Amino acid sequence: MAILGTALNAVGLIFLTHAVYSSHEHTATFAHTPLPLDITIELLVSILVLSAGIVVSSPQLKPIQWAKWGGKIAREGQQSEGKWTKEGEEILSEGDGFAFLGLDNGIGGDGEGRRGFWDVSGKRKEYAEWVKTGGKK
Fold it and tell me: What pLDDT, on the 0 to 100 scale, is given for residue 16?
């Protein structure tokens, strides 16, 4: 299907380019006349062919129901995330269907939490420790 999608995209792109060039030449030459029907039809056909090529070459859709999608990922087991540690070891996800969202808030995890988000419970613990030590670090 990838070859068919690529071919449809190429043909659609050629038709679209020709239709745009023809409409530009027509408006430059005949400024106040409407666009001819053949250019309009070519433009619509090119859009339809490009749309069909995009649909044919698109990857398989994921299920809409989160539970099925999460269950599918959980059944597949550990998979590579494409990331590496400083020591050169590959990071594997444990089959958590939502691991890619980075929802770890630092509680019971690696402690880093989500970048750009403020860890309220961690800050409360820091404040409690600060109060216990009498305001000294």
Answer: 97
